[in-house]
Amino acid sequence: MSLEIYKRIADFGKKLATLARIEETLPIIAEEAKAIVGAERCSIFMVDQKEGMLWTKLSDGIGRIAIGINSGIVGDTVHQESAQIVNNPYEDSRFLAKIDEKSGFVTRNILAVPIYGSRQEVIGVIQLLNKYSGDFNEKDEGIMSFFANYISGTLELALLMEKK
Predict the structure, then answer these.
(1) pLDDT per residue rounded down to tens, the chain (164 residues)
(2) Alpha-helix residue ranges (DSSP H) falling in 3-71
(3) 44, 64, 89, 135: least CB-packed within 10 angstroms?
């Protein structure tokens, strides 16, 4: 990872420190994630273990998404506790094509990265869609894993504040 990306993420962290509400935090995280790896869309899924669900408060172009915790590539990311790169989603049995059908969007490739909380449990997943230049790769995965670790504290704090 280049020094410029580390600096960009550090500068971004300063911006996040000023936010407390999840409605303010998620769009800014998504925009930065897209800019860092050059992706068309970003959804941030939050894990609700009690309800067995994954949900978004932010999902580019489609509104809220709620799926079972074991559903799709995002669910597999939570279950496996590891990033998933899928460069042929329509050939992957985990892919939830009905979401594309509903939105009219065509997913070409996916990078899904877990976000860990302070207790080392997966609290969310950053899912990026459609890299502008080619397919997602291990370098993108490394950058987004670093980014997910960097933003996890802010995201966890925003979730805690929301519950109060």
Answers:
(1) 577 887 787 777 666 666 656 677 788 889 999 999 999 999 999 898 888 999 886 555 566 788 889 999 999 999 999 999 999 999 999 999 998 888 889 999 999 999 999 899 999 999 999 999 999 999 999 999 999 998 888 778 767 766 65
(2) 3-16, 22-37
(3) 64
Please answer whether residues 155 and 32 qualify as being in contact, where contact means their C-beta atoms are separated by less than 8 angstroms.
no
For the domain made up of 3-163, give the CATH fold: Beta-Lactamase (3.30.450)
Tokens of 66: 């709620």
Q: Are 5 and 77 in contact (CB under 8 A)?
A: no
Q: Which phi-psi region, left, alpha or beta, contains residue 96 (left: φ > 0; alpha: ψ -120 to 50)? A: beta
Q: Which residues contact 119 (CB under 8 A, 6 or more apart)?
A: none
